[in-house]
Specification:
The structure is a homodimer of 327-residue chains. The first copy, chain A, is 46% helix and 16% strand. Chain A contains twelve helices and eleven strands.
């Protein structure tokens, strides 16, 4: 099993991707990593680590795509970037998957363009983990498809179902359609038609509402990319906003140092599920290959998890199952 | 000034509407309230209160629309309900506005049907308050319009602007378009066109993202009714979800009673902005009249605030301004 890792992706490179790669090969004895990026920088960082040298190799890719570059333009103008080179290797079958903590838009564009779509998939999609009181759910689509048709929402449900079952390990994931009410006649024309299609899935639990997300009333939340993206970023903003409100409440009282630190440490613990760095990346689904993206601030452990998830996706042959399910 | 109040609306009727009406006439000396609902029930509840008797009158309306009844069906089949009778009085000019804590869908349907649209308004809309770290914002549309055109989003911005300025009292409200990114070329075709139209408002601050809502980066958040409704219910679910996560963190430690009660009381205080009962109802905008709806669990104080906001809307002649602005 060979996974290409974007060594220039994220806010802390090449340190975190290199570090994550080293952790991954130590955890999986059958894994070979190809670090893709500027050769000298990677070599230098690798020299700080102890690792089985035959299991981490370097593929030079000197161009760097910044986190804020316009995606399509970046992919077109930088053929020697880690994203284009790494996905190209995957497309040629040299590696079994590609993971990155880099520019999500560029990765999405390059994955669709270089790997292509799976047979029968209307549009590739991106899923994201979402914290709930029960652990987390999968929100799909998280921003790849801003205009959707009912058939696309149906396919998001199908792909999310397979990912939640085979990669996350939920035996029978509850698939919910995000909507304005529970009843099947609720919602826009698109949502009503999507409901009818999703009923073909035995584990479809019907419409779920905004209040059902944090409450964990589904394992897979199906929605369009505008709703998913707004909810994704909204979720990320909850801890800071509530800390600010809580600090306001704390300031109004005469609390001693010990009390303040108790409250803050409890908060940190309660908010841990909202810490996206703990999650090991999220998949592009529906592309003809294995491509995952992590948060820009991914820690080495998060990158390691993302690599191991990519291995799992390749080993379980997730794309074959998707093709069969959308057929 | 005469306002009709739905005495059967909400989870606690006729107590809370009657109580709210009594509070309102005591606060505003020039106000007359018409309590609309089953005469005997209202009389009985009123007899528990001390109030200026010539300023609260009863209009009998024996039918009761339940909180969960299908809106259009309820309005059609119950002509003697408080909603249909009260809005009918308003349409005939007998009262200057109608407020209710009842079935939102029925109110919306009846308001549009009985009062009609304002000249130039494509579709009436419903706005909602949204808690932020800076106080609150106005989210518009909150669930009335599930399919939107760019021109409708533009009008939501125009109406939200006038409401935020003249009723909430924000001198120059920042109008933001909820989108997947800040740049003007972001979003669906509908959102891109709405952006172009909204630029006509001097106080349009451009696209805002999911993370900007709780952070209070706009005073008016313009969106379609699916997004708004999902975010509205999501917001309402935050306190309970986080209390649950925090209780989990508390249970893992050996805390004494005093420490637990400190944490809980701080939380209650921090979460106060999320308490929708504190808000005095939200308006239907774009209908040819004044129609407001409050949360089903509205307290007497919330109903009083809603009544006084309806007075403000009538006094400032908000609808004349809306007609002028959309022309």
């Amino acid at each position: 099993m060979k996974i290409a890792v974007d060594a220039t992706g994220g806010d802390h490179f090449p340190q975190n991707p290199v570090n994550g790669a080293v952790l991954a090969v130590k955890e999986n004895d059958h894994l070979i990593i190809v670090l893709v990026g500027p050769k000298d920088q990677i070599s230098k960082e690798l020299s700080n680590h102890d690792y089985p040298e035959n299991r981490i190799v370097i593929q030079d890719a000197p161009d760097i795509i910044g986190m804020d570059e316009a995606p399509a333009q970046a992919v077109r103008s930088k053929p020697h970037s880690s994203i284009v080179v790494g996905l190209g290797m995957h497309q040629k079958g040299v590696v079994d998957g590609f993971v990155s903590a880099g520019n999500t838009g560029a990765l999405m564009a390059a994955s669709a363009f270089i790997l292509g779509r799976l047979d029968g998939v209307i549009r590739p999609t991106i899923a994201t983990y979402y914290p709930t009181v029960k652990g987390f759910g999968l929100m799909i689509d998280a921003g790849a498809n801003l205009e959707v048709k009912p058939e696309m929402l149906f396919q998001f449900g199908v792909m999310g179902n397979i990912y939640a079952r085979d990669i996350i390990g939920i035996e029978t994931p509850r698939i919910g359609l995000l909507n304005v009410g529970e009843e099947k006649e609720k919602g826009s024309e698109t949502l009503k038609k999507a409901y009818a299609l999703l009923q073909a899935l035995p584990n479809f639990v019907g419409n779920v509402e905004g209040r059902d997300i944090l409450a964990g009333q589904a394992d897979v939340f199906v929605c369009d990319g505008v709703t998913g993206n707004i909810l994704l970023k909204f979720g990320e903003s909850i801890p800071d906003a509530l800390k600010m409100l809580l600090m306001g409440a704390i300031k109004k009282r005469q609390l001693d140092k010990e009390q303040v630190s108790l409250v803050i440490s409890l908060l940190e613990e309660a908010f841990a599920p909202f810490d996206y760095q703990r999650v090991g990346g999220v998949p592009f689904l529906g592309v003809n290959g294995i491509s995952m993206v992590g948060h820009g601030s991914s820690s080495p452990a998060a990158i390691k998890n993302m690599i191991l998830n990519a291995v799992k996706m390749a080993e379980t042959d997730i794309n074959k199952k998707i093709i069969a399910s959308v057929a």
